[in-house]
């Protein structure tokens, strides 16, 4: 018990001293996960919207696949990305393995289905409300998708947040494709895993505390935006 | 005080932004229209002929098929069988030349002004018309407010402004004044009357007999999925052409 308390004390000391190594790891984590979340939104939102408003043969199968992909095992994604980016893989010539870009790719693959599936649900509910009005206005499919995404923007923020949350907390894929290389691809989750295995609980706890604070901070910010929007009946 | 609810009771005139050569409203010919949901026929061989001008009020008891008829005329629903002919065009081909105001207005999660902007942009209309349209329906002072926080009457006036933004040849209204206060009802009637005076064909579903008396040039009475009476307003109200319409006007239950 004493060792945990000591580790916590050291962890807070690290956090408040703005330790350079710690800061580097945190900033890289944010860069990788925010980029992955943004790319996943660019890919996932239009897919979610098109499935939400589309009525086509095989739509139910698409829905099942979309929902199933939400539970993609990170290590499997990591392995597949590794196989593609490794020197002998089809994309090996790009030289991306063990770089932050490889980690962004892996996280994007992990969370794009989450963004697509959750946004599909949000947009389908909104479309049910707007559909007749939009048909009456003779909107094109693109106009409909744009309008739905814009009007659901505050709900979709939560969807993006869910994607970011999954990305920033993920360890299996990024450790395979990133390699957890110090000062290059070490992010919070891989550092926590490493430091715990090495017995450096202070750094692991410090990173854990920061991870929790980031998660709480982002959630609080999104919740605040949503509450403001709800007061204006924009949600 | 809003422009619409001014001392004169008349809506402010919309600035003359409408294209000078707007298409004339076409006549409507409906023949043997049937709409079934499963075994139940909601419309059962309905036939109807309407001229290209004026305000037609569609009345009838609940379940008579009035709202569904509007959606069929607007091309939002395909009939099970029968024919809808708008001067040689099918109903879906006429959708873009019409506007439908729903009983419960569907407002976008945006400001009042942005609701108008959206339609003007989507239909490639002059964006400068927005302020004139809002003034026309008495909502200029609410332009920046969230649309979904408007009162029922204001929301319906915004829906009407949005419909008028499309420059419709035919304006279809599905009980737009249901559950509104008398001032809001009169405001909406004023806007609709002005549209009619500009040559827009009005087809108006209502349960409000007083409103029908004020607005109608002719009245179509639906009963059991068919037209049971269709006559000019000055004939319909003093001498309804069928027992169901007479019972309806007397406030008796129509079955």
In short:
The complex is a heterodimer of chains A (235) and B (255). Chain A has 235 residues and is an all-alpha fold.
CATH domain fold name of chain A: MetI-like fold
CATH superfamily of the domain at 28-86 and 96-104 and 169-249 in chain B: P-loop containing nucleotide triphosphate hydrolases
Q: How many beta-strand elements of chain A?
A: 0
- Portion in beta strands of chain A: under 5%
Q: What do you see in this structure?
A:
The complex is a heterodimer of chains A (235) and B (255). By secondary structure, chain A is an all-alpha fold. Helices cover 79% and strands 0% of the residues of chain A. Chain A has 10 helices and no strands. In chain A, α2 runs parallel beside α5, α4 packs across α5 and α5 crosses α6. The longest helix of chain A has 37 residues. The termini of chain A are far apart. Chain B has a domain of 149 residues: Rossmann fold. In chain B, strands 5-6-7-3-8-9 form a 6-stranded mixed sheet, with helices on both faces. At the A-B interface, α5 and α6 of A face β5 and α3 of B.
What key attributes describe this structure?
heterodimer; A: 235 residues; mainly alpha; MetI-like fold; 10 helices; 0% strand; B: 255 residues; alpha/beta; Rossmann fold; six-stranded mixed β-sheet; three-stranded antiparallel β-sheet; 9 strands; 31% helix; 23% strand; disordered N terminus
Spell out the blueprint of helices and strands:
The complex is a heterodimer of chains A (235) and B (255).
Chain A: H1 2-16, H2 20-53, H3 59-69, H4 74-85, H5 100-136, H6 141-151, H7 153-168, H8 172-178, H9 188-198, H10 201-231
Helix pairs in contact in A: 1-10, 2-5, 2-6, 2-7, 3-5, 4-5, 4-8, 5-6, 5-7, 5-8, 7-10, 9-10
Chain B: E1 28-37, E2 40-50, E3 55-59, H1 66-74, E4 81-86, H2 91-94, E5 98-101, H3 112-122, H4 129-136, H5 152-165, E6 170-174, H6 182-197, E7 201-205, H7 209-215, E8 218-223, E9 226-232, H8 233-236, H9 243-249
Parallel strand pairs in B: 3-7, 3-8, 5-6, 6-7
Antiparallel strand pairs in B: 1-2, 1-4, 8-9
Helix pairs in contact in B: 3-4, 3-5, 4-5, 5-6
């Amino acid at each position: 018990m004493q060792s945990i308390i000591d580790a916590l004390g050291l962890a807070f000391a690290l956090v408040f001293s703005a330790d350079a190594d710690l800061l580097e790891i945190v900033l890289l984590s944010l860069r990788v996960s925010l980029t992955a979340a943004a790319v996943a939104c660019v890919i996932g939102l239009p897919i979610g919207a098109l499935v939400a408003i589309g009525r086509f043969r095989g739509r139910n199968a698409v829905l099942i696949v979309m929902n199933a992909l939400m539970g993609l095992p990170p290590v499997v994604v990591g392995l597949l990305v590794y196989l593609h980016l490794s020197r002998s893989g089809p994309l090996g010539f790009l030289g991306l393995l063990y770089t932050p870009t490889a980690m962004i790719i892996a996280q994007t693959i992990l969370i794009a289905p989450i963004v697509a599936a959750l946004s599909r649900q949000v947009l389908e509910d909104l479309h049910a409300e707007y559909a007749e009005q939009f048909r009456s206005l003779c909107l094109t499919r693109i106009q409909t998708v744009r309008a739905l995404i814009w009007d659901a923007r505050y709900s979709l923020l939560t969807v993006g947040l869910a994607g970011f949350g999954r990305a920033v907390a993920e360890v299996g894929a990024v450790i395979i494709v990133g390699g957890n290389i110090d000062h290059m691809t070490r992010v919070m989750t891989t550092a926590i895993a490493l430091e715990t295995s090495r017995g450096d609980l202070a750094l692991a706890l410090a990173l854990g505390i920061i991870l929790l604070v980031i998660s709480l901070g982002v959630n609080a910010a999104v919740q605040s935006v949503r509450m403001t929007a709800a007061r204006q009946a924009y949600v | 005080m809003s422009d619409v609810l001014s001392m004169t009771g008349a809506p402010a005139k919309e600035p003359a932004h409408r294209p000078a050569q707007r298409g004339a409203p076409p006549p409507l010919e409906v023949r043997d229209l049937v709409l079934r949901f499963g075994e139940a026929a909601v419309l059962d061989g309905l036939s109807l002929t309407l001229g290209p001008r004026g305000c037609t009020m569609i009345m009838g008891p609940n379940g008579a098929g009035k709202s569904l008829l509007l959606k069929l005329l607007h091309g939002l629903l395909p009939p099970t069988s029968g024919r809808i002919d708008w001067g040689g065009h099918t109903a879906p081909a006429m959708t873009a030349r019409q506007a439908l105001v729903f009983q419960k207005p569907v407002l976008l999660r945006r400001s009042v002004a942005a609701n108008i902007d959206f339609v003007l942009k989507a239909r490639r209309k002059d964006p400068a018309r927005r302020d004139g349209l809002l003034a026309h329906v008495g909502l200029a002072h609410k332009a920046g407010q969230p649309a979904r926080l408007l009162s029922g009457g204001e929301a319906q006036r915004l829906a009407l402004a949005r419909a008028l933004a499309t420059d419709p040849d035919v304006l279809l209204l599905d009980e737009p004044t249901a559950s509104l206060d008398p001032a809001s009802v009169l405001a909406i009637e004023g806007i609709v009357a002005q549209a009619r005076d500009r040559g827009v064909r009005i087809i108006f579903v209502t349960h409000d007999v007083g409103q029908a008396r004020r607005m109608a040039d002719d009245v179509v009475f639906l009963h059991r999925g068919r037209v049971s009476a269709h006559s000019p307003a000055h004939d319909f109200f003093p001498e309804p052409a069928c027992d169901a319409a007479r019972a309806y006007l007397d406030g008796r239950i129509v079955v």
